[in-house]
Amino acid sequence: MGHKKYYGYKPKHEHYSVILYETGTKVGDIIDFVYEDGCCGMNHYYWGSETDYEYNRHGEVEHNYIWDEENTKKLMLRTGTKNGKGLVKAIYDRFHHHKDSADFYIWQWCEQKGIEYDFRAWF
To answer: Measured between alpha carbons, how far is 80 from 71 in angstroms, rounded to an integer?
Structure first.
């Protein structure tokens, strides 16, 4: 008996991302929002020696916010979007004007709306 091939539906790999803020200098930070295969996340990276002393008193150099599939659907519901591309655009349109504190306003908004996320800080 030979090997039977499966010709069923294979979901398309989705990846959308947007940069909410970027300094573009030797010392600074960048905030991006990413949607990938039903889940989304936000990253805030710091770089440069002065950053550790000036902006991050605790030496934190990377913050990650991760929403699971259920909470990503809640984000879509609250932003009025139906897919990942629309969600990334809606987050950008709503929060990019906050510049280097966009991540603060996003997680504050999520807490007000009851949308849970996982937070990680890297040193």
So the answer is: 14
| Domain parsing of the chain, residue ranges | 17-122
Determine the Cα–Cα distance for residues 68 and 58; give it in Å rounded to an integer.
28
- Bridge partners of 34, per DSSP, are 17, 41
Long-range CB pairs of 92-95 (<8 Å, 24+ gap) are 92/18, 92/20, 92/33, 95/20
Whether the full predicted model's pTM is greater than 0.70, yes or no, is yes
Dihedral in degrees, nearest 10, Cα atoms 80, 86, 90, 92: 170
Residue type, 66: I
Structure confidence at residue 61 as a pLDDT band (50, 70, 90)? confident
Long-range contacts of 94-99 (CB under 8 A, 24+ apart): 95/20, 96/20, 96/21, 98/20, 98/21, 99/21
Other beta carbons less than 10 A from residue 73's beta carbon: 15
